[in-house]
Design a protein that fits this description.
Elements: E1 2-5, H1 10-20, E2 25-27, H2 45-60, E3 64-73, E4 80-81, H3 87-91, H4 99-109, E5 117-128, E6 131-143, E7 159-161, H5 173-179, H6 181-195
Helix pairs in contact: 1-6, 5-6
Length: about 200
């Protein structure tokens, strides 16, 4: 089955392809000739995911799914949340989509906080056979005081999932996908697609 994943993020595309396996041919936005920036103006992860999926369906006529992921930190009132990818751009030095700047701002904002609990939450919006569906995956954990590891992307060097002694960036792709927020949401998507 061929399906569009509404992303230009090569890391996300690779991660989802690994989770979905060979049963699905997952193509990204570049593969369908979509080079424009799809708006993400919603105030929720669900809203952003739906906005991206609807854009592809309306402009390209293809069934697709889109995701939005937020890092929700308890001591910061759930921030960065829907602004996770653009945290430093919006609330810091104005650096666009820069993981190092995002992590630096997060660690700075948590310097005097004792509660470092956090969770990653992914919402996948699927448009399939004329219907919209939402799938959610959550991974609880905590924010470390410094970066570790070299794998993964985004905030992986500072996020340690509950029950583990290593952060995401110290895990192999297989280990991370087995427990991650995106892995959990994607498996729900797969189960739905297999049954439809």
């Amino acid at each position: 089955m061929k399906i569009v994943f509404a992303t230009n993020n090569a890391h996300k595309l690779q991660e989802v392809r690994q989770i979905l396996g060979e049963r699905f041919e997952v193509v990204g936005l570049k593969d369908i000739g979509c080079h424009e920036d799809i708006p993400e103006n919603a105030e929720t992860l669900e809203g952003n995911a739906l906005e991206k999926a609807r854009y592809v369906k309306e402009h390209y006529g293809l069934d697709c799914f889109a995701d939005d992921t937020g890092l929700e930190v308890t001591a910061l009132g759930g921030a960065p949340g829907v602004h996770t990818a653009r945290y430093a751009e919006l609330f810091g030095e104005g650096i666009t989509h820069d993981s190092n700047a995002n992590m630096a701002l997060l660690l700075h904002n948590l310097e005097k906080k004792s509660d470092r609990s956090a969770r990653f939450r992914t919402v996948i919006a699927l448009i399939y056979k004329g219907e919209e569906h939402l799938f959610e995956g959550v991974c609880e954990g905590e924010i470390l005081s410094e970066r570790h590891g070299t794998e993964g992307f985004g905030y992986d060097p500072v996020f340690r999932p509950t029950g583990f002694d290593r952060c995401f960036a110290q895990m192999s792709a297989e280990e991370k996908n087995a427990i991650s927020h995106r892995g959990r949401a994607t498996r729900k998507l797969v189960e739905f697609l297999k049954g439809s």
